[in-house]
Specification:
alpha+beta; five-stranded mixed beta sheet; 16 helices; about 20% strand
Length: about 650
């Protein structure tokens, strides 16, 4: 029988026009070597001879998983350039990301893997989680890599080991030659996995390195090692494997090879989407437009013979050496970025507070447009959008005769909402009872969406600050779990807060907390936002009037994770099985659209809905060009003109 554990190690050193990272290839090779020795069926995927693209990664994963029996654990390692955008959406940049305008969607890939019968997934990323710095990165198309798997979805346990957190870079240290270049996080991880560091072993299980003990070691040791190179690096670690199946290294530990020494102290290089060095790549295939180099396939199988691992040649030198970027330069750039984001966040929050918008409608629902005006709002046959002020204020009113969504002239069920702007673009989400929604429009599309309760205005400043953080790119700088707890406190006063919290939990592999949020919405008689139904993997069915009904499973109590949860029992307590109506008929946030392939055939995704994807605009919230908006209107309501 083949090994029950599998590992795909990806190292992308050359992703023009970004800086060249030979340490990424070295890191992938080192993890692949350990995994092969530890009994993982292992594939090493590097760009030493030709570029690595989405299809190559797809082929590698498919080869590891299909027709090879049960997979108890899959470890995916990535080293290279990365970025974070919107609501905790991590993207990995492959060799030709710039020309392809595609990137690996880490969350979407994790979701696809749920259909491959894997019991445990470990995601290890030695890459920056920097923010998009221009339209080329902000508008990248996220790719989930895999198609729908062969089995019904299950929820595997997940370990997530990310080199950086809170909008920090990940760093590569340059050695005397390219073969000596080393990524800080991977170097610390490599020493632990080979059993070379006593601090990585579990205190209560002698000779064993577990998910928990490895997480504890990395959290402590990575910042210490980084300080030796005068940088700050604090890993983002989620330890999700459970005893006794949480072992990375068992007793006796495998015999360790001669591990490379750490390069002397010197300026590190950041692994984010800023081309601050010479850029443009260093390999012939990327710098001179030459045909692909011969001499072997980029897909390397590490068989029983333990053949040599491909290494980055030490002889490659840039034609024009890139200017050195010192640790102080990196710190300055990070501080400048933080100050800029805070300034933008404060500006957006102030703008939201001063928006001209309706406070209430006697029909119990409405919406407003800020920064533009609208031609019309479309809610199907269940409601009418009435222009109340120059195409900027809109009342949601009952048709004649009113249907089941209305009682006493007031809306009491959620409805899908699409809005056609005067310039032909479309935005949308849901019309919700007791709320007035405000869409803020900019050049990218729907820059923000805020629901304001017509009766509970307490703490609206927190909602405005949270959406401002998303719009300014500062949400990626937050501690995901602590910020999710903060947002949840306002989820009933503005459902967008619950949606943002759900995306943060999804980035941590925590589906149960998302289901908790859904259960609280159902218990309060409020709609379950569409994105939460998707992220929570909720079963859905069609209601009598075309509504979408979500079925929320019970969630068991668990131990609190961190101080923010310890102070709030509702974040970790049990919630009962529940059911409720879904708010809207499509994702409220752009990043939710990349998850819908897995819902095709359910009540959430009617036939033809995904045909609109090529028309999606690059704003954080859902927006479409003119053609896409009309097509979506036809798919949801049966009309688009």
């Amino acid at each position: 029988m083949p090994p029950a554990k599998a590992c795909l190690a990806i190292g992308i050193s050359d992703a023009p026009p970004l800086d060249y990272l030979p340490g990424a290839v070295n890191g992938a090779a080192s993890i692949a070597k350990w995994a092969e020795q530890a009994g993982y069926r292992t594939t090493l995927l590097v760009d030493t001879e030709k570029p690595v693209d989405i299809d190559t990664v797809n082929a590698a994963l498919t080869g590891l998983l299909m027709g090879r029996g049960k997979t108890e654990r899959l470890l995916i390692y990535f080293a290279g350039h990365g970025l974070a955008r919107d609501a905790a959406e991590d993207l990995w940049l492959l060799s030709e990301w710039f020309s392809d305008q595609r990137a690996v969607a880490v969350g979407g890939l994790k979701r696809r893997l749920e259909r491959f019968g894997i019991e445990q997934i470990a995601i290890v990323a030695d890459a920056c989680r920097s923010l998009p710095n221009d339209l080329d990165t902000a508008d990248l198309t996220p790719d989930n890599v895999l198609g729908r798997g062969p089995v019904d979805p299950n929820l595997p346990l997940v370990d997530i080991l990310k080199a950086s957190s809170k909008f920090r870079a990940a760093y590569m240290i340059s050695g005397p030659t390219a073969e000596d270049d080393r990524c800080i996080f991977t170097g610390v991880l490599e020493e632990a996995l080979w059993g070379a560091k006593a601090g990585a072993f579990a205190d209560d299980r002698p000779g064993v390195i577990t998910s928990g003990s490895l997480a504890k070691y990395l959290r402590a040791e990575v910042p210490v090692r980084a300080r030796e190179y005068e940088v700050e690096l604090r890993p983002d670690i989620v330890s999700g494997f459970l005893s006794p199946d949480d072992v990375y290294v068992g007793a006796p530990a495998p015999p360790a090879p001669a591990l490379p020494s750490w390069p002397p102290a010197g300026p590190p290089g950041a692994m984010g989407p800023d081309a601050r060095g010479a850029g443009g790549g260093r390999r012939g295939w990327s710098t001179a437009g030459q045909p692909e180099a011969s001499g072997g396939d980029v897909l390397e199988w590490l068989g029983d013979d333990g053949g040599d691992l491909p290494r980055q040649p030490a002889s490659l030198e840039p034609e024009s050496p890139a200017p050195k970027v010192t640790a102080e330069d990196d710190r300055k750039l990070i501080e400048e970025g933080r100050a800029d984001r805070q300034k933008r966040k404060d500006g957006f929050a102030a703008a939201y507070a001063g928006e001209d918008r309706p406070t209430h409608y006697e029909t119990a629902a409405g919406f407003a447009i800020s920064g533009a005006s609208a031609r019309r709002g479309v809610l199907g046959k269940a409601a009418i959008a009435q222009d109340d002020r120059d195409g900027r204020w809109w009342r949601v009113a009952p048709p004649d005769p009113p249907g089941m969504a209305w009682s006493g002239g007031r809306l009491h069920e959620p409805l899908p909402l699409l809005v056609e702007l005067d310039d032909g673009r479309w935005v949308g989400a849901a019309a919700l009872p007791q709320f007035v929604a405000t869409f803020s429009i900019d050049a990218t599309g729907a820059a923000s969406l805020i629901y304001r309760s017509m009766y509970d205005t307490y703490g609206i400043e927190m909602t405005e600050r949270a959406v401002a953080a998303l719009r300014a790119g500062a949400m990626a700088a937050q501690d995901a779990r602590a910020f999710a707890v903060e947002l949840r406190q306002r989820k009933h006063a503005d459902p967008v807060m619950g949606v943002l919290a759900a995306y943060l939990y999804d980035s941590q592999g925590d589906v149960e907390s998302i289901r908790q949020i859904a259960s609280f919405y159902a218990g309060a008689g409020q709609a379950i936002p569409y994105d939460i139904a998707v992220l929570g993997r909720l079963k859905t069915s069609a209601g009598p009037e075309g509504q979408i009904v979500a079925h929320v499973p019970a969630v068991a109590a668990r131990a609190p994770q961190g101080p923010a949860e310890e102070q709030r029992r509702w974040t970790y307590g049990a919630t009962p099985e529940a059911g409720g109506l879904v708010g809207g008929a499509f994702p409220w946030l752009r990043q939710g659209w990349s998850l819908l392939d897995d819902e095709v055939g359910s009540a959430l995704v009617p036939e033809g809905l995904l045909e609109v994807l090529p028309h999606l605009l690059p704003s954080p919230f859902t927006a479409f060009d003119a053609e896409g908006g009309k097509l979506l209107c036809r798919r949801i309501f049966g009309s688009g003109t």
